[in-house]
Amino acid sequence: MDKPHHLYLVFANQPENPLKNLQKEYEEVQELFIGPQSQGHYLAHCLSSANLEYVAKKFNDIKEKLFLFHYSGHAGKDLLALNEQHARPEGIAHLLGQCPELKLVVLNACATASQVDALLGKGVPVVIATNAEVDDEVAMRFSLEFYRALVMGDNIKKAFNWAEGHVKTRWDVKFHKANRGIEGLKSEIQGLQWGLFYSEKNELRTKLPMRLPSGQPMQFIHTYIPNELLFDTLMHALSGFNEEIRALQEKEEEEKGSASWRNKANLAIIEAFPLPIAEQIRKLLSDEGSFSEVSLDRIRQISTVYQVALEMLAFTMISHLWEVQMKDEEDKKTTPLPSGLQQSLKEYFSLGPQAHSAYDYIPLIRQIRQYFDGRQVAYFIEELEYLKDLFQEDEDFSRACDYLSFLRRRSQHNAIDVGRIPQTCQEAEEKLRTILANLGFLSRYRLVSIKNIDVRKYHHHPQATFNHTLIGKINPLGSSGSARYVWKKYMDNRGALLMQQEADIPGRKFDPKKKEHQIKGELGYLNLSPFVFDLNAFDDNANKVRFCFFSHYEAGTYYFEPVGEKSGNTVEVSADFQQDSEIHFVIREQFEAFRELMLR
């Protein structure tokens, strides 16, 4: 077999004028190539710092099999910055012109389009460059999206279109401060405008080299069995919070190998999570369809589990944020939201259906977290205090989120390479394991619906209490049912509440005669309405929940997706106040109140 090709990627920062995102770009691009490189497809050389002499020497060592050259850092029309030295484009073009198998040069820096002619003139088939100053973060995102698409099997043109499209949907580039230009350089062209330049159009069909005969399946270092490692991860993550799972893990090894034990464990895992997450994990672990097999459906379902879990966390954070702002208003305080956070909320609640289904919740969660930390607000889900550190951009958790967000967008656009499905399945499950390993604490919470609240005040009672009828997964392993909670305070009527599991409620005592729970202490809960609501809470004859999650807002109508139902069973709530059913009135009034306080 021929020697593998080389990919040469240089990320050159300058100590006196550092680009804050360049190190992250270097680390994540390097990580992208680890899998294919370990399988012998090519050798990726990623340099985080290098002087001109070293770069030239490396070129000479690998020039015969160099396939791709990438540069990120400071640049201008007539130079590339390498640490404290400047490389002239003519010299770089001369070096690259000596590489007979070179297919692509990427100059991911400011105003490098003027260097294209020299490169094409030396025989480089395809060059990606910019004709304007480029913001550091935007350049990083373009680079990551482009190389992720290439690694997923796209050719150069498709990967370029994918990356550019992603960047343009996230940033109004005309308003970004440019900081990838050499000091003093002024670009004549404003805005973000990457260029794709080529000598022959068919060169754009080039893909990353794969050293396998056509049609031969991708080989893995380890045998991949769907769900095996994911199952182990979930059992371990949940055992610290769930007594049933802890008991299952303590069984004898012989019993743990039985089908009966595995079925019980799968059920325990599913029931441990709040309903919307539980439903998506159920599909992944069950034999339903092809979700448990190496397939495109499995890839999509993995991305759905991730998306629903992050959506649940985001709705929790948004609901808590609304509670904080309402309390400020009640206390006659004026604490406006930071403009960036408010703008992010406005953008989120104006997304269309496709954009919403692939929305990246991480930046919004970070913004709310930073606001809470600045005001020293205690998190409703106390474990988020720990989780916030995992959302730092250099953490494996954050990188796993980034990968699955990318995968979600790819699946939405039917852009998963069929020939790469086995490898993508394995990669996606590994990233999901990284995330779920840190979310076991969610089993401490359940999503319930408040069906009715009755006032209980008899002659011999000095104070009134309130009898709440709750519908939902009352116990971690129980089926949907109802329970009565008697408390000195009242919760929100018809609300979809995120509550602690019964075992964690302080001062709770069950009365078997009255079949009700007496709550003597404080009861922690968070109302997720109107972002989540129970459609059946407004039906007096219904005895089970039908939770609906906010999907999008369009043309005066709020759209919701019922949990666990077929796609397309959308619930619509008009915002024009012409519908007179109680549910429409309550939900749209809550949304209008939210918009008035939070978005205007």
Please provide a written account of the structure:
A seven-stranded mixed sheet has the order 14-15-12-11-10-13-16, with helices on one face. It folds into four domains: 5-205, 3-Layer(aba) Sandwich (Rossmann fold); 228-364 and 398-438, no CATH class; 443-527; 532-598, no CATH class. A hairpin with a 6-residue loop joins strand 11 and strand 12. Helix content is 40%, strand content 19%. The protein has helices spanning 22-32, 34-38, 52-62, 89-96, 116-121, 136-151, 156-170, 228-239, 243-249, 253-256, 259-272, 275-285, 296-330, 339-348, 353-357, 362-375, 384-390, 396-412, 421-436, 582-598; strands spanning 5-12, 42-47, 66-73, 75-76, 79-82, 85-87, 104-108, 126-130, 194-198, 445-456, 465-473, 480-487, 496-500, 508-511, 516-519, 525-527, 532-534, 547-554, 557-562, 571-574. The longest helix is centred in the middle third of the chain and has 35 residues, at 296-330. The chain is elongated, with a radius of gyration of 28 Å. It is of the alpha+beta class and 600 residues long.
Question: What order do the helices and strands come in, and which of them pair?
Answer:
Blueprint: E1 5-12, H1 22-32, H2 34-38, E2 42-47, H3 52-62, E3 66-73, E4 75-76, E5 79-82, E6 85-87, H4 89-96, E7 104-108, H5 116-121, E8 126-130, H6 136-151, H7 156-170, E9 194-198, H8 228-239, H9 243-249, H10 253-256, H11 259-272, H12 275-285, H13 296-330, H14 339-348, H15 353-357, H16 362-375, H17 384-390, H18 396-412, H19 421-436, E10 445-456, E11 465-473, E12 480-487, E13 496-500, E14 508-511, E15 516-519, E16 525-527, E17 532-534, E18 547-554, E19 557-562, E20 571-574, H20 582-598
